[in-house]
């Protein structure tokens, strides 16, 4: 194994060590992956952003698209690192002006997302970023919104992926990367 691979594996292990599991949150049977310890440690958070930036494999987005709310944290930091713009995708009623809206299923319910209709130019290269890939509902809804705007999807990037839920099977419109898999 190369030194670069060893360093990457050590960096991922470091980030993973700052993610705690909260059983039965937000409801019984859900083991919530809490990123607040990761966010609270400057070095671990920086490492997570650096890893995401290194993992996108030369795909250069014009915009990072972050979904409410934890996707804002990772997405905005990654946009800054990559020199890209940041587009927030929000819950209904949070954005002023004309929006596109999309309803989707969560692993524990349903919700909706919105994006400004004028958020980007047709053909703009985008990367969707969020903290967690579970069922993929949020990411797919965000992708649907971007397609309505005419964006080019470069991929999806997540800090955490819950592999047991097989979201990748339903997300074949663009490459999916994740740093930590459970």
Layout: helices, strands, pairs:
Layout: H1 3-16, E1 20-23, E2 31-34, H2 36-40, H3 42-55, E3 63-67, H4 70-82, E4 85-89, E5 99-106, E6 109-116, E7 125-133, H5 137-149, E8 152-161, E9 176-181
Parallel strand pairs: 3-4, 3-7, 7-8, 8-9
Antiparallel strand pairs: 1-2, 5-6
Summarize the structure.
The protein has helices spanning 3-16, 36-40, 42-55, 70-82, 137-149; strands at 20-23, 31-34, 63-67, 85-89, 99-106, 109-116, 125-133, 152-161, 176-181. It is an alpha/beta fold. The longest helix is centred in the N-terminal third of the chain and has 14 residues, at 3-16.
Question: What does this entry look like structurally?
Answer:
- This protein has 182 residues and is an alpha/beta fold.
- It is built from 5 helices and 9 strands; from the N terminus they run H-E-E-H-H-E-H-E-E-E-E-H-E-E.
- It has helices spanning 3-16, 36-40, 42-55, 70-82, 137-149, and strands at 20-23, 31-34, 63-67, 85-89, 99-106, 109-116, 125-133, 152-161, 176-181.
- The strands form 3 sheets. The chain has a 5-stranded parallel sheet, with helices on both faces. It has a two-stranded antiparallel ribbon with strand order 1-2. A two-stranded antiparallel sheet has the order 5-6.
Top keywords for this entry?
single chain; about 180 residues; alpha/beta; five-stranded parallel beta sheet; two-stranded antiparallel ribbon; 5 helices; 9 strands; about 30% helix; globular
């Amino acid at each position: 194994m190369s030194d670069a691979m060893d360093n990457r594996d050590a960096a991922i292990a470091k980030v993973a060590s700052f993610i705690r599991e909260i059983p039965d949150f937000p409801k019984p049977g859900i083991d919530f992956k809490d990123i607040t310890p990761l966010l609270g440690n400057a070095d671990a958070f920086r490492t997570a952003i650096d890893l995401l930036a290194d993992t996108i494999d030369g795909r250069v987005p014009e915009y990072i698209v972050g979904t409410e709310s934890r996707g804002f944290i990772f997405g905005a930091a990654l946009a800054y690192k990559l020199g890209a713009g940041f587009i927030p995708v929000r819950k209904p009623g949070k954005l002023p002006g004309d929006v596109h809206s999309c309803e989707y299923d969560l692993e524990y319910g349903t919700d909706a997302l919105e994006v400004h209709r004028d958020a980007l130019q047709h053909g703009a290269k985008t990367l969707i970023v969020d903290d967690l890939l579970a069922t993929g509902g949020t990411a797919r809804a965000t992708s649907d919104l971007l397609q309505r705007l005419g964006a080019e999807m470069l991929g999806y990037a997540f800090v955490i992926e819950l592999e047991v839920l097989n979201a990748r099977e339903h997300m074949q419109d663009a490459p999916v990367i994740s740093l930590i898999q459970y």
